[in-house]
């Protein structure tokens, strides 16, 4: 038996220089191709980049390049592509979250800070509303009462200070997010971290809320992202995902597809001089799982009370789940 092995042709893979004994006496180009295919299958899995089939490492590189290219015009393009409706979708996410003072938020794929800024605004409005209610509880407050109330408010702000961590794998997106935060005076309570959604650089049970908006469809392993979200959330913490989904109305669906494939890439070329990146973004939307399928994936990651709400006839959906 050992002798027969030496009778089979031995070829070397051009990709990694590994050697293989081929089967059925294949020689020359056929043998090399067999070795190359064997090596590719063994070494690296295939996935999708839009409608293309690519290796996992190639997808990661190309997705990074897409967002590196669009970072400067990302916010402008969001307004152009959605006719500004993305702002309402993000507001709806915050109303769904309803964060209280002291909440610790992790916003993954947070890029230019849209969700984190809304979070800070929402919590501030909650604090101001509570202060007004406390002030009204005094019939005729003296200056001592007012002084005491403001002192209590300062103490509460210290102990119940909300924090948002914006985590993104793309340094260019974070760069423009920081610049925007400084311009809009969002400096207190924000942290910016370079990190991979599939392997987050945070301890277990650390955050009250995890959000990911229009980002999860671009990752290679959705299941790993969901598992990481579960890991870093505290018991009782909440997972929220805002993502493009399946349009429910057939007429709107046809119009939406026409707009997506015929208009959005053109806008990308005109506004950002980048047709291909926006062509990919459209294709990635159509490759993402529909609402029920994604809901099941969230449950498989361990979350409970998983539900979703469709917005704009299902063009996007907000998915929610809790860690118990």
UniProtKB/TrEMBL annotation:
EC number of the protein: 2.1.1.201
Q: Which Gene3D superfamilies match?
A: Vaccinia Virus protein VP39
* GO BP term, pick one: methylation
Location in or out of the cell: Mitochondrion inner membrane
Record CDD domains: AdoMet_MTases
Role played:
Methyltransferase required for the conversion of 2-polyprenyl-6-methoxy-1,4-benzoquinol (DDMQH2) to 2-polyprenyl-3-methyl-6-methoxy-1,4-benzoquinol (DMQH2). Methyltransferase required for the conversion of 2-decaprenyl-6-methoxy-1,4-benzoquinol (DDMQH2) to 2-decaprenyl-3-methyl-6-methoxy-1,4-benzoquinol (DMQH2).
**Subunit details for this protein?**
Component of a multi-subunit COQ enzyme complex, composed of at least COQ3, COQ4, COQ5, COQ6, COQ7 and COQ9. Interacts with PYURF; the interaction is direct, stabilizes COQ5 protein and associates PYURF with COQ enzyme complex.
Q: Which family does it belong to?
A: Belongs to the class I-like SAM-binding methyltransferase superfamily. MenG/UbiE family.
The name under which this protein is listed is 2-methoxy-6-polyprenyl-1,4-benzoquinol methylase, mitochondrial
Organism the protein comes from: Callorhinchus milii
